[in-house]
Write a structure and sequence with these properties.
Elements lengths: L3 H27 L8 E3 L1 H10 L12 E5 L13 H13 L4 E5 L1 H11 L4 H6 L3 H15 L2 E4 L3 E3 L11 E5 L6 E7 L4 H8 L11 H8 L2 H14 L11 E4 L12 E3 L10 H42 L2 E3 L5 E3 L3
Parallel strand pairs: 1-8, 2-3, 2-4, 6-8
Antiparallel strand pairs: 4-7, 5-9, 6-7, 10-11
Helix pairs in contact: 1-10, 6-7, 8-9
């Protein structure tokens, strides 16, 4: 019987290691839905910062380029924009006459990836869902050219010059994961290098389309890499490597939008989008919080049982299968 503690220990160590791995994975996944790292600015704060600085002190990290993407995966080869999207994009072109403007069609996008990032071409062409190519493309555009990427269902309320003084930024809807509908960067910013370099290791196909899109290239992926980037930053990063969240919260009472408007979206909706979108924004934080609580309670109860049995053995008792302690006969 003297080998029983050793056998128990041999079983307990891998069980605890597995338990720790599961908990760490759950917490790592849940982290993308809670408070995000990095500095957050409302659009009003960006405007106020710009207005309070003299022209001579303003540095524009981000080049004056607007990128938009139109991949017509329902009618390949047809590069004519829907009328409402064309009207929305014209608001950005008219508001920023001194910006370069690029509309990236399927053929133009494929040529860019083939020419500049051939190492990614097989992954780009192999994505199961077309929107994943749009996701990946916007990240490579930020890495290569810099500028401001804007989804076609987002318009502009005014010129975007005040946003150019930040080295890089993404948008934050104020709940759930970060957004990738509007992005901006200086060329070669290390966050976008990490984003693009991480796409291949993350390119899994999950059971549900929404999970595959969101976690292999979309907003969940973006947020996970965001957290990883900030975890690797030195205590005092260089100003040119700064990274900000521009708030675009649509909920009542949220900060006013200054630069952007919202139009019709939903171009990549699958059957599971609304269901898992609700889960991602609302239920996952609730569920993971309770799972963590149950894990802590389970660990505490297990530790108490182990301590009780150990104490009973020291006192000369053995615990029967029904939980009753009986003094051992010597």
């Amino acid at each position: 019987m003297r080998f029983r503690p050793l056998v128990s220990l041999l079983f307990a160590i891998p069980a605890l290691a597995l338990f720790g791995l599961i908990v760490s994975r759950i917490l790592g996944f849940a982290q993308i839905f809670f408070e995000h790292a990095g500095a957050a600015l409302t659009q009003e704060e960006v405007e106020a910062r710009y207005n309070s600085s003299a022209d001579s002190t303003r540095q524009e990290y981000i080049p004056r380029i607007i990128h938009q993407v139109f991949h017509n995966w329902r009618d390949h080869g047809n590069e004519t924009l829907p009328g409402d999207w064309d009207a929305v994009r014209q608001t950005c072109i008219r508001s920023n006459p001194d910006f370069e403007y690029h509309l990236w069609t399927e053929s133009k996008s494929l040529e860019f990836i083939t020419t500049e990032y051939e190492w990614f071409l097989s992954t780009y062409e192999g994505y199961k869902y077309p929107v994943q190519r749009v996701d990946a493309l916007r990240y490579f555009l930020m890495r290569h050219y810099g500028g401001i990427y804007i989804d076609l269902d987002n318009g502009c309320s005014r010129d975007l010059k005040p946003l150019l003084s930040l080295p890089s930024w993404v948008t934050d809807g104020g709940q759930g994961a970060l957004s990738n509908n509007i992005l901006a960067a200086r060329p070669g910013h290390p966050y976008w290098t990490l984003m693009t370099d991480s796409l291949i290791p993350w390119s899994y196909n999950y059971l549900f389309p929404y999970f595959t899109i969101m976690y292999a290239s979309g907003q969940w992926y973006e947020t996970a890499i965001w957290q990883k980037y900030h975890a690797q930053l030195p205590a005092e990063p260089e100003e040119k490597d700064g990274l900000y969240r521009i708030m675009m919260d649509m909920r009542p009472g949220a900060a006013r939008w200054v630069f952007f408007t919202q139009g019709r979206g939903g171009s990549w909706d699958n059957w599971d989008n609304h269901f898992f979108g609700f889960i991602g924004n609302m239920l996952i934080p609730w569920i993971t919080g309770h799972i963590f609580l149950l894990a802590v309670i389970g660990g505490a109860v297990g530790g108490l049982v182990w301590y009780r049995r150990k104490r009973a053995r020291r006192a000369g008792y053995k615990t029967l299968s029904n939980g009753v302690e009986e003094r051992e006969m010597v």
